[in-house]
């Protein structure tokens, strides 16, 4: 389906969140400074994805094309490129130290030395079959003295950088890029989804004081830990909204759609409270008669899965050496964060301080997007604005805050060439 001719605007930014349950596209324009105004958005049910990964490129392409086209109609502009979120259990993380050879050769550490730090770290960390998504500087070491956050202008004979490197399996990232670009949109950059969500729901004060963000989507629960204003740890747990719904599906032999509706309207993590009283009916696959289910049973099922999720979150945070875990605030976001009772359960099992994060005042978004479900989508847009150049998103030099924008852009360019060559040979 051809998209209609529309206005092109170099100051238009687009974010596409390709998730397990939905594809959300948001289009916004930059006005004076870095202010953002949402022009249009679209949310469509996701197809062609499994557990956060593109499983069927043609089907995912159609879904993305549908979402983009609807957002374009609302905005009245044509989308040429977009920031795209990436997640999934294939994503891996590491904190590493690397030496920046030649740094300080002019007598002092320069801005150029610091700007090339992420690309140096990304190049060293790169491995066959693994795409570097981010290389985010955490701290520097000047002549062996670690813990320096701003070494610009310091005299040094040796400069090392500690970098948080995020990598994804090329098989999955390539499919994601292919689905988006075959839908007619160039991928400017891939951004780790929980990192994007943190842009939308966390404050700078929280990041400085220390905070854990858990983004519970449809396919995975993604964790980001911040300390001293820096990203400290990231992890992925393959338990999220899909598993809660699938438990209901399998237990009662009902359709996924009916199970999802039951989860949203009747599920709770506390099977012994007033919330668990009464019963509901569910259709049974292959039968005309419906099944009566005690709501208490449904809530017990939900509680067991929520307890598993809490246990896995604790395990991951212990891996991060979070000795102060009981005192470290926990922010839940993503669609599953709205599950009734989940906040209280996490407060009793993971952290004494828990809140549900929604896109905050960084940007004025439509009311329907001011919900945990859209933290990633809004965060991607904020990420795009933060790393775009002053004149046009196409003219930016890379992603200084991201730390790996230029490298990722070159890898995407090479991928596009391979994709074009493959398409030509197939014709």
List the keywords.
Nucleotidyltransferase, domain 5, single chain, alpha+beta, Dna Ligase, domain 1, 427 residues
Unreliable spans: 391-427
Number of strands: 18
Q: Give the CATH class of the largest domain.
A: Alpha Beta
Specify Rg, calculated over alpha carbons: 22 Å
Arithmetic mean of pLDDT = 85
Write out the strand line-up for the largest beta sheet, numbering strands in chain order.
Answer: 3-2-1-6-11
End-to-end gap: 19 Å
Looking at this structure, what is the CATH superfamily of the largest domain?
Answer: ATPase, nucleotide binding domain
Describe this structure in words.
- With 427 residues, the protein is of the alpha+beta class.
- It folds into four domains: 156 residues, Nucleotidyltransferase, domain 5, CATH 3.30.420; 78 residues, Dna Ligase, domain 1; 92 residues, 2-Layer Sandwich (Nucleotidyltransferase, domain 5), CATH 3.30.420.40; 64 residues, Nucleotidyltransferase, domain 5.
- It is 35% helix and 27% strand.
- The protein has twelve helices and 18 strands.
- The strands form five sheets. The chain has a five-stranded mixed β-sheet, with helices on both faces. The protein has a five-stranded mixed β-sheet with strand order 14-13-12-17-18, sandwiched between helices.
- A hairpin with a 4-residue loop joins β12 and β13.
- α4 packs across α12 and α5 crosses α11.
- The C terminus is likely disordered.
Task: Give the structure's gist in a few sentences.
With 427 residues, the protein is α+β, with helices and mostly antiparallel strands.
How would you summarize the topology of this molecule?
Layout: E1 12-18, E2 22-30, E3 36-45, E4 49-50, E5 53-54, H1 57-75, E6 81-86, E7 92-99, H2 111-115, H3 117-125, E8 130-142, E9 145-148, E10 159-169, H4 170-182, E11 186-192, H5 193-201, H6 204-209, E12 211-216, E13 221-227, E14 230-237, H7 241-252, H8 256-266, E15 279-282, E16 291-294, H9 295-319, E17 330-333, H10 342-349, E18 354-356, H11 375-386, H12 405-426
Helix pairs in contact: 1-4, 4-12, 5-11, 7-8, 7-9, 9-10
